[in-house]
């Protein structure tokens, strides 16, 4: 049986050729005001310097901080070949020990209060199984110029109706959910390349789980030429 540590949040960071962004992503997680976290980075067979950047970041942080136990709170796994987005996430979920599991894309950033606000909301609403957040997006290199998303929905009933009608209104990179969700329905599936994030949330709702979004923009979505989502949106 999988070990579950009460109150801990396991943050899954799938990476593929993210050498330019992974360190700033990890910095944003390291600054979370919610302290009972573990960070699980899965390098999905990168062909650039992503793996080196991850380990260099860890070395620097180990030397400069005494408040975070890297021995049992930071895990970095390099897969021998590229398995795809869903494969990398599933590896991270299997390694997770937290009561909650959160997602984080390696080219994006999280607000320092993201995790604490999501955990507070889950505690306040014990019937919730998953919660995302609003987000702001910015062009790479221009973080100071951000715009608010306009496509998300808020409220369990609205989100439930949207997915049952084939809609999509929760940003996968922002979600935090109870670990039992993974135990019940598993992680993302690989048969729908490019829609793994949508499929995972839709299966949660189809299984009767309650999903909501926080209206606070607690996530920062980076736009750049090599991002995975742009590849599929173009199609």
Give an overview in words:
Helices cover about 35% and strands about 25% of the residues. By secondary structure, the chain is α/β, with parallel strands linked by helices. Strands 1, 2, 3, 4, 5, 6, 7, 8 and 9 form a 9-stranded mixed sheet that branches. Strand 1 (about 5-15), helix 1 (about 20-30) and strand 2 form a beta-alpha-beta unit. The longest helix has 15 residues, at about 50-65.
Strand content: 25-35%
Oligomeric status: single chain
Element-level helix/strand string: EHEHHEHEEHEEHEHHEH
The major sheet is characterized as:
9 strands, mixed
Gross morphology is: globular
Q: Alpha-carbon distance between the termini? A: 41 Å
Instruction: Compute the number of helices.
Output: 9
Structural class: alpha/beta
**Residue ranges: pLDDT <50 for 5 or more in a row?**
230-235
The share of residues in helices is: 25-40%
Roughly how many Å is the radius of gyration? Answer: 17 Å
Overall mean pLDDT stands at: 93
Number of DSSP-assigned strands: 9
